[in-house]
Amino acid sequence: MTTRDDLTLAHRLADAAAAAIRPFFRARYDTEFKSDKSPVTEADRAAEAAIRAILEKERPQDGIIGEEYGATREDAERVWILDPIDGTRSFIAGRPIFGTLIALTQAGWPTIGIIDQPIAKERWAGMMGQPTTFNGAAVTTRRCRSLEEAILASTGPQYFPGCTGEHFSRLAGQCRDTVWGGDCYNYGLIASGHVDIVVEAGLKLHDIAALVPVVEGAGGRMCDWAGDPITAESDGRVIALGDAARLDDVLEALAEGHHAH
């Protein structure tokens, strides 16, 4: 069972990652590029190493899947899923809208999620069955009566492969405003009621797992582009809504013209 102790530990993990990341922000450090051209920095590695050291000591039976150091005991019932810096491009550019993502999954379902912005010292924490908190205080998403009132957010147009970009553009055309950039930070903003919809494609498990408890614990909804729940098998196309009443509108906009492709 996921317990309060697990949540307390998750906060400790986020503290350790933040302490590892802060000295590198807007400083000089080495950046490498992985085979998929995504950047990784010393800060990513230092943060994940700090988290793993605590987990190996405190939860030696639990599995760990991390973006930088791979999988350990990934078949365990309980698995911690880590993305030390989600939004490395923002981090490298000196923009404090990246975040550390920490999730605990049980039998594949995310039960705890933390989105931590270590520079602004902003932290969203979600736990199944509990209200999401922002720096310790409960937060809720906001109502959105129609797409015409909605603020839509996404990390970047370059992340929509093939015709998915056209589908996104159709949705954006029906929304009041679209803001670009932000990675995991946008999902915290949904939980706090500043953004209404986030739509993305091409996400991996370590990008997604922590977001679900945060968004849903604040009264929002997360699903894939078919409207189905997010699981480890999801295809990386994600919708997050502050107001679940808009789900059909979003699905309709994203699906329009789908048969033509």
Write the element-wise H/E pattern from the N-terminal end onward: HEEHEEEHEEEEEEHEHEHHEEH
Number of contiguous helices? 8
Helical coverage, percent range: 25-40%
Structure classification: alpha+beta
Instruction: Work out the radius of gyration.
Output: 18 Å
Oligomer: single chain
Overall pLDDT metric: 94
Shape: globular
How much strand? 25-35%
What are the segments in which pLDDT stays under 50 over at least 5 consecutive residues?
Answer: none
DSSP E strands, number:
15
What is the CA-CA span between the terminal residues?
A: 45 Å
Reading side by side through the largest sheet, how are the strands ordered? Answer: 4-3-5-6-7-8-9-10
Largest sheet: 8 strands, mixed
EC number: 3.1.3.15
Keywords: Hydrolase, Magnesium, Metal-binding
GO molecular function: histidinol-phosphatase activity
Family: Belongs to the inositol monophosphatase superfamily.
Quick description:
With 261 residues, the protein is α+β, with helices and mostly antiparallel strands.
